[in-house]
Amino acid sequence: MQGVLALFLLILGAGQLVAVLLRLDGLSLAGGRRWAGLALALALLAAGWLLFVPAAWLGLAAAPLAVLAVGLLLWGGSIIAPVIHPNSLYAAEHPAHGGCQRVAIPDGQHQIPGLLLHPPANVCNLGAGVCLVPGAGATKTFFKWRLVRLLLAEGFTVLTIDPPGHGDDRHHPLDYPDCLSTVPAAAGYLRQLPGLKPVGVIGISLGGALAIESLVRQPDTPVAALVVAGTPISLNYTRRSFYIELVNTLCSRTGMSLFREMTARQVWQTWKSGGFRSRYNVSELLALLRPVANIGRLRLPLLLVYSRRDHIAPPEHARCLQQAAPAADLIESARASHVLLTLEPATNRQIVAWLRRQLT
């Protein structure tokens, strides 16, 4: 029993040390307190070493003890001194922005919920705005804080919305073609703000298909550039697809980097916040929105953003869209899964640089 305890302490201490060195505060038993976390890791390793009794059978216990140690780090990191959720970015006051306010954008007989964030006072305001349109089941804050932070740091004003059937607008089910007024209404609202001139739109997943057809139907919408990020052209979603996407999300550098800013509990709570209401499923909505047929009809700068690890919207979908719109630029990530595409730092930097070239 002493040998099992020693091995467990060694594994737990090693896990704690890795969490501290890689700044995975969400996995650390000391949260964001690095010196306390380092001291705890060394104490666990020392205790395990002092108790260690070499025995051949201890090797058999390594796997279950490793699982137990990882589970304890995930649980402890969530309960003991948890890090502040990165969605605190959307508080009214935060150093990353110059103000964040909830807005209700008129759209026919109902209103679109959104969050309007202004660039901080210590950066040059570009006088340009960017509207984020989330994908199916996502919300205006769902895994977007890194992209929003970067846009703000570059001087953009950011509007992120909940389309019909999503987030704070779940009471109003997403319907077609009624949903096609959402993007023009949000872009028009952003364009009318004092001091703002050019406006860009980032459509994520289904949000990209929605933005494409909306701007084709209403070509006078004041949008100067469109980013289409991880938008499938069709979808045959199966249980196998779910597990492949889950593995691609968890077993990636971008996925692990989440624990620098979040605990396991916060990741799970964010994931559960998704879902949407509609009489259509995503496959039916994509068939109605016809992104490949419509994208070639757009007359504005286009950027396609896809990932080789995305099983929902693979690079083949990007090639089909680029064939229909040859003038479109393309960014292809090598790391991000479908869910984490807007959290990949290198990809986000390229998106923001492209928008800056188009809007300033």
Structure, described:
The longest helix is centred in the N-terminal third of the chain and has 22 residues, at about 60-80. The chain folds into two domains: about 1-85, no CATH class; about 85-360, 3-Layer(aba) Sandwich (Rossmann fold), CATH 3.40.50. By secondary structure, it is an alpha/beta fold. About 45% of the residues are buried. It has helices spanning about 1-20, 35-50, 60-80, 145-155, 180-190, 205-215, 240-250, 255, 265-270, 280-290, 290-295, 315-325, 345-360, and strands spanning about 100-105, 110-115, 130-135, 155-160, 200-205, 225-230, 300-305, 330-335. The protein starts with a helix and ends with a helix. The model has no long low-confidence stretch (mean pLDDT about 85). It is globular. Strands 1-2-4-3-5-6-7-8 form an eight-stranded mixed beta sheet, sandwiched between helices. It contains 13 helices and eight strands.
